[in-house]
């Protein structure tokens, strides 16, 4: 089926390629990429048959809001706008309500998979009304690996689920980071590359993140000397904690992992290097080079 992809960055480019590999007709717009099929959103609209589907795969914040508002002015009744970025779920609920006033569908899709999604698939968590979600299901199932897609609920549910997913990710990464720092400081002179390697097989702590950490040790060395111990956060961990507070749900691990990222910006520590390396491995997030 047809889709208009807006944004050809790390995720959008891989998603476009994966959809095309599955036989879908994807038109593209990104003002910073020459390989786009359209030079404007208006031209992108002209390349799609009604009812159209526009997929925003751009950073959360002002650029998403501006693009959404422009699409609202261009889209016609029955068209669908999908936000696949990491927007706050409350913004998604508001955008859904605004789109409904004009007879336009709005769907929020939480996407996980990072730079590896093209090869292994993107876990896809979708929120929105049943009709547009059902109509676009061939897109969602093509993006996802087997059993990696679900319509998780009403408007906002997709981004809410992805928010919590990323909060959990914070905690998992911090646990690995702290454990490997303890070993790095031990009296035994442990081979962290070897240990991360054997833990991938049969260990109760084996995971994809651990596999990526092993890859990072192979690429950067077991000391991660070329990675600065500075770990950014993109917002979802904070939002998860805000919701935990609003719901009176204790979330000490996720909270502590966020605070550890804050401290990484002031203190030199090995655990921050591990977290920074992992973010680069699974998501292609930029590494701050060690000075």
Overview of this protein structure:
The protein is an alpha/beta fold and 291 residues long. Helices cover 51% and strands 12% of the residues. It is built from 13 helices and seven strands. A seven-stranded mixed beta sheet has the order 2-1-3-4-5-6-7, with helices on both faces. The model has no long low-confidence stretch (mean pLDDT 95).
Write the SSE topology.
Blueprint: E1 2-6, H1 10-21, E2 25-29, H2 41-46, E3 53-56, H3 62-74, E4 80-83, H4 89-101, E5 105-112, H5 117-120, E6 123-127, H6 130-135, H7 137-143, E7 149-153, H8 157-184, H9 192-198, H10 208-220, H11 236-246, H12 252-264, H13 270-283
Parallel strand pairs: 1-2, 1-3, 3-4, 4-5, 6-7
Antiparallel strand pairs: 5-6
């Amino acid at each position: 089926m047809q889709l208009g992809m807006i944004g050809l960055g790390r995720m959008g480019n891989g998603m476009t390629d994966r959809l095309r590999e599955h036989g879908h007709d994807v038109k593209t717009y990104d003002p910073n990429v020459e390989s786009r099929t359209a030079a404007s959103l208006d031209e992108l609209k002209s390349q799609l048959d009604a009812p159209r589907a526009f997929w925003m795969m751009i950073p959360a914040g002002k650029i998403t809001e501006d693009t959404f508002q422009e699409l609202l002015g261009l889209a016609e009744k029955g068209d669908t706008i999908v936000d696949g970025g990491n927007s706050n779920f409350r913004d998604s609920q508001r955008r859904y309500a605004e789109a409904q006033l004009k007879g336009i569908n709005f769907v929020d899709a939480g996407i996980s998979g990072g730079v590896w999604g093209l090869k292994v698939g993107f876990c896809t968590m979708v929120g929105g009304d049943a009709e547009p979600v059902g109509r676009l299901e061939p897109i969602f199932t093509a993006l996802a690996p087997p059993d990696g897609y679900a319509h998780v609920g009403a408007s906002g549910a997709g981004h809410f689920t992805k928010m919590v997913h990323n909060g959990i990710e914070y905690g998992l990464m911090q646990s690995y980071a702290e454990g490997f720092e303890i070993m790095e400081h031990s009296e035994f002179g442990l081979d962290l590359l070897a240990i991360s390697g054997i833990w991938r097989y049969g260990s109760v702590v084996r995971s994809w993140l651990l596999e990526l950490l092993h890859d990072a040790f192979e690429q950067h060395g077991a000391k991660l000397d070329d990675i600065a111990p500075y770990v950014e956060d993109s917002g979802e961990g904070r939002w998860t904690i805000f919701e935990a507070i609003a719901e009176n749900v204790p979330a000490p691990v996720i909270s502590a992992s966020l605070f550890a990222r804050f401290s990484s910006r002031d203190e030199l520590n090995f655990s921050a290097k591990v977290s920074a390396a992992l973010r680069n491995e699974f998501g292609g997030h930029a590494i701050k080079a060690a000075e």
